[in-house]
Every structure is written in C-alpha cells, then in structure tokens.
User: What shape does this take?
Amino acid sequence: VSHCTTERPPETIAIVGAGVVGRGWVPVFARSGHEIRIHDPSPGQLESARDWIESFLLSSPAVRGHSPKLRFCAHLEEALQGATYVQESIQENLIAKRDLFERLDRLCEAGTLLCSSTSSLDINDIATSTAHPGRCFTVHPFNPAAVLPVVEILATRAGSGTTTERVAGILRRAGQVPVVLHRFVPGYIGNRLQAALMREALALVDAGVADADAVDALLTHGLALRWVILGVFGTNHTNADHGIREYYERFWGSYRELIGTLAVETPAVEGPMIDAISATLEKRFGNASIPEIARWRDRLVLELRKVQLSTLPPAGTAG
Amino acid sequence: VSHCTTERPPETIAIVGAGVVGRGWVPVFARSGHEIRIHDPSPGQLESARDWIESFLLSSPAVRGHSPKLRFCAHLEEALQGATYVQESIQENLIAKRDLFERLDRLCEAGTLLCSSTSSLDINDIATSTAHPGRCFTVHPFNPAAVLPVVEILATRAGSGTTTERVAGILRRAGQVPVVLHRFVPGYIGNRLQAALMREALALVDAGVADADAVDALLTHGLALRWVILGVFGTNHTNADHGIREYYERFWGSYRELIGTLAVETPAVEGPMIDAISATLEKRFGNASIPEIARWRDRLVLELRKVQLSTLPPAGTAG
Assistant: This one.
C-alpha cells in the first residue's frame, strides 16, 4: 500500500478593510499557518486594528498557541503582492466594492481568488467591474468568525465548481464550515433566518405577550438546544416516530395554520420598545461591558463546539 | 445564625393522557421525588405507555438514578385521588379538553392545580367549563421535556400571581425553566418562533437557494451556537460595541429592509419538496432509526446543558 499525501503549501491571504469584519478574519487564517497581510486605506483604522489584534485577539482561546505571520500594510499594492486569496471586508456599498474589485482584478495575479465578505450585495453585481468574474466569490462570515465556523459561499454565474471547491478547501483548512449557495437572495441564508426570528421575536414583545428575556429563555433553554444539534429540518425529523414524512403528514396542517397567524408587518423598533428591551438586557448582564459578555460567549461557544464535534450523528447499524 | 429551611412535601401528580406528551412528563416529575399517577381512557394506550416507560425511559440519562413512584391507573378517579397537580395531555381538541376539565374541576380537591399541555388552544377557552378557572393553567412542554427544560405557563384571566408562582415553583423543583406569558397568542411563543424559522427555511429550499442540509448547517455551525447562549436579543446586544441600542441604531435600517424581502406566503410542502428534504436527511443519518437519533440528541443536549449551566453570564465587576 502506498500513500500519496499532498501537503498543500500555505496561502498568502490579503485582508482588505480592517474594521470589525476584516479583523475577525485574522485569527481564522492565522491558525491554518497562512501568511496574512491586512490593509486599510485609513492609517487610523489600521492602527486601531493593530492594537485590537495585539491586545485582545492573540490572547483569545480561538487562536492561542498560533503565532500568526501577520503584516500591516499601508498600501494596497503591498498587501496584494504574491497574494493567492483576497478577503475584501470594506463597508457594504456597491460602488465602493465594485471600484475595489476592479483594482483587485487589475493588480492581482491570474490565479488569485477575490472574495467579498458582503452579507447583502450580490457578488454578480460587484464582479461586473472585473475582467474575470469567474474568480470572484462571496465568502460571508458570522461574528465572531473564529468561533462561529460557518461561512456562506456564492460563486458568480461565471464561476466553476472547481474554483468554488478551491475556495471551500482554503476555508475548510482554516477550520471553517463552508456552505455553498446555488443563487443570490438578499441576506443570503443566515441573515434571512436571523431576520425571520427577529421579526417574530420583536412582534411578540411589541404585542406584550412577554418580555425580551422570556423570548430569549425559550431559545436558550428550549428551541436552540435542538437546533444547535439538528438544525430545523433535523428537529422536525426527530419529532415524529418515523421521521420527517410522518412529521409533515401529521403536523404540517397545524403549522400551516399557525404560520398564517405570524407577524408579516415589520414591527416598529423605536423609543419605548428599545427602552424596554434594553432594560431587560441590563438586568441580565448587570454592568458587564460588551467585550466581557463577548469573551464569555466565545468561551462557551468553544466548549459547545467541543461537545458537538465529539460525536458524529448515528448512521445506523444495519447498513 | 439560624437557618429555617422549609422542605416542601412532594406533590401528587396526575398525568391524564398517556400519549407522547403525557409520557414525556413522567421523567420530569419522577426526578423531583413526586408521586405520579398516569391515566388514559384507552387500556391499549396505557399498556403501550407502560412498555415504553419501562424499556426506554427509565434507562435514559435524564432519569437514571431515580426510581419513580409511578402508578398506572385505568380509571380517572383513581388517578385524581389526593392529586395536588394535574397535567392534562390528551389530544388537541377544544371540546375534549373542555369536557375533561369540567370533570377534573368536579373530581379534584379545592387546592388542586389543573394544567393543560396544550400548545395551540387558549386556556381561557378550556376553563369555561369549570367553576374555578383561577386554578387552570397552560403548562406547555417541549419535546423531550426531560432534556429541554423550558415550559410556557399561561394563567387564565381569573388567575392570580400567587397561584401562578405555585405552578412555576413545582416545575422549577422538577428541573424545568418556567416562562410566564402575559396573554394568549396561537402557538404561544415557542411554536411561533419555530414556525417563523420553518417558513423561511422551507421558502429557501423551495426557491432552490440551497438544500435542507445547507440550511441546517447555518444553524448548527453558526446561528444556533449564539442563540443557545444569548437568545436572539442577547445576540443582537453583543453584535455592536456598545450594546443593543447601538445595534438598532446602526443595523435596524438594513434589517427592516431585509425583513421586507422575507417569505410571507406559506410554502407548499408536498410531493417533490418532501422527497428532496427527506433525501438529504436520509443521507445525513444513513439508516439510523428515529429512536437512535433521538437518543443521540438527548445525550448531546444533556452535555450542552452541563456546559451552559457551568457558568453564569458576567454581571460586571464595578458594582
């Protein structure tokens, strides 16, 4: 038996845009041993990213033990030199992204992948400014990317399965879980699911059914405990003795009726409602700062991941 | 220093209806040392509940180590004798529940609490058949109740805070997390949140954006990892540097726009769509049976709960 192991060489990753999203990518690529360059046209933003990365990020449990090969670049050209993968993370503005992609396409080598962190824009619209839309992708992370591994990938209509697999492979090697979408919808999948839950949660608080803490308790001590293991379809599957076909047969009628009663109007999120929601959260977290709460969240998510990854779903014994 | 500990005497719980929901209550009340009687008018149903409880439930990690004081009662009167708390769990039918509550109210002692597991009916409508609506409550569990601790409580308009607290206390002592609703809405909170997520998830699959596995991956490796710790409001709170007020200021505009694009029609769940969803689930779980998957889920949820309960949210250090 002969094994042929192809050890892939590390990538050179250019992160363009050093705000919250751009910084969040640093630990993801750092832990896979890739070279990282980070650029922002604003020297202040770049400096503040350096402070944040050095004081907070490198001590976070998500990167501990890795010393990233990281360079802060004042000039875009410097960041792009030899880059094999670009992760664009500037503000959500079509004109600005189009303009940047035109430059990326012009300045990068032919094989370089050009990926956008956009969560709302269509990569097909962004890539119109380039001569090579086939190498342009949406690669949308969730906050914080180093602890929430899922990423949404969307190729342009000019993209190929092979190039998409190259993008997914780079992210997989960095510990992420890539999910490939077949076509664009506003908000992609994740933010749409989140928006759907927000709409109903806000409507329930608005209607005085319960306060924000009660709604969150239904998730933390109930629904989300199933979703985090099975998702929503997997949950339906295990809520009938013989699986999802039986579930739909028995329960879809009442769910269809219930769905007909859900909020369709967008609730007004203003003055008194924000005050009330804010008050319940202040009661829950006392005077803990957001970074304190976020560190607590990250530690817990990493522990939950360990439990989640400690076991595969059962695949049956007879086959 | 003198401690005055009032050890509460165990309750006598009558579970009426021995289907999936009724059986699910057994381990919950069993682990708190309460006496339990379970009744079903159908001898077959009662026998099948006995088999299930003896062969599966008592070996489940959620009850292990507790030997329930459990009696199977062929007659309603026998189950209710000396009961301090009744958990009605028959089919979701207003006429049947009204009829049963009339009998419960007539047969039980004055102080006995009469609780319904209903997930869709208004307890105010059920209690019209009784002379004492103030002791009638909805106490709605999630499946499986012994591992998903949240319960929704709704008093009737005749109910008092003191009686509601008595119900909540009994459930809390049994290891549940009671959430009190202020008024009735169809599906209460939990099933509405679930229905909102199902509507958008089904619409995304229906529109060919991605398959059921991809949608579930967004939850298991992303969104639900935050929701299980923070809920949806807590997640928004930690997604801006200064909390939820800043979050709404900065992001509500784009969320409102996104919400405007969400599914409002109820997707048609039929033939080819069910086939496609079913196929992805069969691929995920091979030929594992639903009870095998459910046992795996329960073990994982209990481990997640341990992580969740190992730490309180930070409450700040300054005061």
